[in-house]
From TrEMBL:
Membrane topology of this protein: Multi-pass membrane protein
InterPro entries listed in its UniProt record: PAP2/HPO, PAP2/HPO_sf
Organism from which the protein derives: Myroides marinus
GO CC term (a single one): plasma membrane
Protein name: PAP2 superfamily protein
Gene Ontology molecular function: hydrolase activity
Amino acid sequence: MNKIILTNYSRLRLLLFFLPIVLLIIIACGLYSVDCLSTNGYIAVQKDTFLFMNSSVRNYPHILFNLTQFGDAMIFLSFLSIFVIYAPKIWESLITASIFSLIFTVIMKEFFAIPRPAAALSSNTFNIIGERLAGSNSFPSGHSITVFTILTVLMFAFMPYKIKHKVAFFVFVTLLGLLFAFTRVGVGAHYPLDVIVGCIIGYICGLLGTFVTKKYQLWNWIYNKKYYPIFIVLMIIACIIVINRIRIENLFIYYMALISLFITLYKSYATYLKK
């Protein structure tokens, strides 16, 4: 599997950064053209769209709350933990890309400091699912950045060779990512543009992580079985955290993440014993 991933990475070109950068410029110019680069203008220009999208899915709170958990890096990465054994190159890219996503998220949220819907709008005008988030850190959506960072790494790792299959695969992964990301509007945590920009930034972070690990071998220790006890300890900690979340919120997605971690724990332990 690692050979397939390395082959796919070798085909990547810097031109892939062109589209997301252009999209960010278009969004910025669009907001500027309607005089909405200010905090109040940013919120006002998409208030109606936010309320419409939020109210349209309010009848599916359980589905939304489960799907939005994919924006939690620990939950999403739990499903990919098995790749530590079978495709460590993916984890090289995921670790690097996640560092970029964390940096982008922290810097952009602190710089823009746009209040979330619950802080700027009356709470009785829209649907809130889960915790009521009211801090000044709405833009961009961290969950959306996480989703697209991870999906971008996976997409280019397993990209098909034929062009028609590439297009279909790209469309599928993008739509899946948008589904996960826009749950943030559905649960009342973010405005639509928070999500859209978050998706674009996540895509860029995924590309950065992939290109960096393509050129530099930063995490070679992942391939060494003597470090498996570290993975095992980390996965045990993750299991404890997920079990605690099940105790509090009892979401289906947490059970699936826990099963994934248990499978990886078993495989990791068995592989380590055979070293």
